[in-house]
Amino acid sequence: MKRTFLLVLLLATACADRPEQPIVSQFFSSSRLRDNTALGNFSLVSFDPGTEGIVVDFNITGVSAERPLPLNVNVPAQASVADLSLSNVGAVPEVQKQATELVTKEVTVSAPVKQPDGQTVRKTLILTMQRAVLKDHPDLTGRWVITAIKN
């Protein structure tokens, strides 16, 4: 009985959606539809169906540990990530005046990709996700933003 319970618990945990699932799903859906307005709310990149193909289904096969790095507001790309990440928080003190860091993680997915020529090829894709964290206001944590994708 105890062994059966542990097996069921293990299977339920293995089959549970990962917290990254919704944003990755929204990313591939918005990219497939070329919905740049939707993508602009949570991503700095897209997966162009005309050149890279279409992802309809995917499995998250791994998520790296989160790594913090200090925000350098003089690097426009970092400032853009911080602004987009914190845009859902409401009244945020100016990022430039805050002790802010960007937290980064990589999400690895395996997906059948329908190529522009009609062939379907299984690919492993790595999405980089970042979010801003205000050290002086730990309750003001930004949302995850997709900042890169590579094969």
Describe this structure in words.
With 151 residues, the chain is of the alpha+beta class. The protein has one domain. It has 4 helices and 6 strands, in the order αααβββαβββ. Strands 1, 2, 3, 4, 5 and 6 form a 6-stranded antiparallel beta sheet that branches. Strand 4 and strand 5 form a beta hairpin. 25% of the residues are buried. About 8% of the residues have low confidence.
Notable traits:
single chain; 151 residues; alpha+beta; 6-stranded antiparallel β-sheet; 4 helices; 27% helix; elongated
- Kindly provide the radius of gyration, computed on alpha-carbon positions and rounded to a whole number of angstroms: 18 Å
How large is the share of residues in beta strands?
25-35%
N-end to C-end Cα span: 45 Å
Counted by DSSP, the helix tally is: 4
Spans with pLDDT under 50 lasting ≥5 residues?
4-15
- Largest beta sheet, briefly? 6 strands, antiparallel
Shape: elongated
User: Any idea how many domains?
Assistant: 1
Structural class: alpha+beta
Q: Roughly how much helix do the residues carry, as a percent range?
A: 25-40%
